[in-house]
Amino acid sequence: MIPLVECFGSHILTLRQLFNFISNIVEGLQLEVTGRTTKCIAEEIQSDVLVVGDYKVVSTSEDDLSVTAKVTSPYGKQLHHLENVHSGQFAFTSKESGKYVACFWLQSAHPNVHLNLALDWKTGVGAKDWESIAKKEKLDGMQLELRQLEEAVGSIHKEMLYLRDREAEMRNLNELTNSRVGWFGIMSLLVCLGVAGWQLWHLKTFFERKKLL
Amino acid sequence: MRIWALLLGIAATALSVCLRTADGLTMTVHKVECVYEEVEYDGDMVYGNFVVQDYEIFWGSDHPGIELVVTGPQGNKVHSSTSKEAEKFEFRAPRRGLYKFCFHNPALAPEDLTFYIHVGHIPGIQDLAQDENLKPVNVKIAQLAEALEAVSAEIRYMQNRDKRHRSTNESTQRRLIAYTVAESVMLLGASIGQVYLIQQLFSKRIGYNRV
């Protein structure tokens, strides 16, 4: 690994190379939306996380097809709703943690029409506006990338801590279940024995009363 | 000088394509659901994972899992797997183009699937030789970014599996309490019923024994 001291040198790219990078940017997932069905994509997001989404119709089976998009929060609140568009953008900061759903469907109900929709969905570190941060703090290419890596490492650390907490909760739950299995087994056995004893006693007194024993 | 700074900013944003934080996207698979990913360069590494979130499993055989079939831009099958509940996959894309990832659900009930797909590109040695401005440090930084993305993907996979295990454990806890209470109630009911029945039987026949 080249030591970090050498990394902060000036980093000049030619225009041709820049063009190479920019013209080849095709990010994100592509979904196929058909006339009959609604395509929904969801993600579990924590509270207070920046979410940025960008969707664009890439290819259609017929001309003049447009899509309707709807983004809802876990409690059903509508965050974004556009009808009959070819592209759109949405950005929001999640207020509650839960499942955020983005649904797409076509206006026409014909089963044979379909279109490909490119969806770019970024959360957290990837959603930040790095261009304006670079301009504000005057970072050059290398510094900006290292800054992004630093933020990515920070978010990975946070996710690991969250995972550790969840594992601790699950371990407590498992230990509780384990001890409960033991106690409920003993309780079941005692109930069974107790009921059997009561049956014998009750029938004995009953037969003695009826003068059969 | 300012124009250079702006261009550098744009270039850095372009390089950040590989630095998206992990998308753990969820979708419901009824029979077949397909997503597409664009691979920009020949020989790019494509990796990902998926976890089936089963919320209430009664019989394990009813939920065999989800099959993944990856088709290349020329229609050739690049990767396929048998029905699995959770899997990590990785392959090197031979050609650039649009790759189709299809998830098949052999069961009758729709399944919730959480998946993640990442296409990673590292400027290689041939780019270094061609471009005199592409320093080895850029390659190293790109490799570092890719490694961090891989770590992020692993964490997402573990989180999704943890969710699945958690729902199993909570279901076990609920079943334990419900079945124990139901068993006790039924046992009490059956024994009281037995005693009552025997009492009735002997109340009717009491006359015959006297004879």
Automatic annotation (TrEMBL), chain A:
Alphabetical list of Pfam families matching this protein: EMP24_GP25L
> InterPro entries under this entry?
Emp24-like, GOLD_dom
Where would one find coiled-coil regions in this protein? Answer: 132-159
Q: Membrane topology type, per the record? A: Single-pass type I membrane protein
**Keywords assigned by UniProt?**
Coiled coil, Membrane, Signal, Transmembrane, Transmembrane helix
Give the superkingdom in one word.
Eukaryota
Q: Where are the transmembrane segments?
A: 181-201
> Where does this protein chiefly localize?
membrane
Q: Where in the cell is it found?
A: Membrane
The keyword Protein biosynthesis belongs to this UniProt entry's keyword annotation: no
Keyword Membrane on entry? yes
User: PROSITE patterns annotated for this entry?
Assistant: GOLD
Q: Which residues form the GOLD domain?
A: 38-148
Similarity section: Belongs to the EMP24/GP25L family.
- Record PANTHER family: TRANSMEMBRANE EMP24 DOMAIN-CONTAINING PROTEIN
Task: Write down what this protein is called.
Answer: GOLD domain-containing protein
Which organism does this sequence originate in? Sphagnum jensenii
Automatic annotation (TrEMBL), chain B:
- Domain named GOLD: residues: 32-119
Organism per entry: Sphagnum jensenii
The UniProt family comment states:
Belongs to the EMP24/GP25L family.
Q: Which domain of life is it from?
A: Eukaryota
Give me the segments passing through the membrane.
176-198
Q: Any idea where this protein resides?
A: Membrane
The region annotated as signal peptide is: 1-16
Membrane topology note: Single-pass type I membrane protein
The record's Pfam families line, in alphabetical order, gives: EMP24_GP25L
The answer on whether this UniProt entry bears the keyword Transmembrane helix reads yes
Q: Which UniProt keywords apply?
A: Membrane, Signal, Transmembrane, Transmembrane helix
- Its name, as the record gives it, is GOLD domain-containing protein
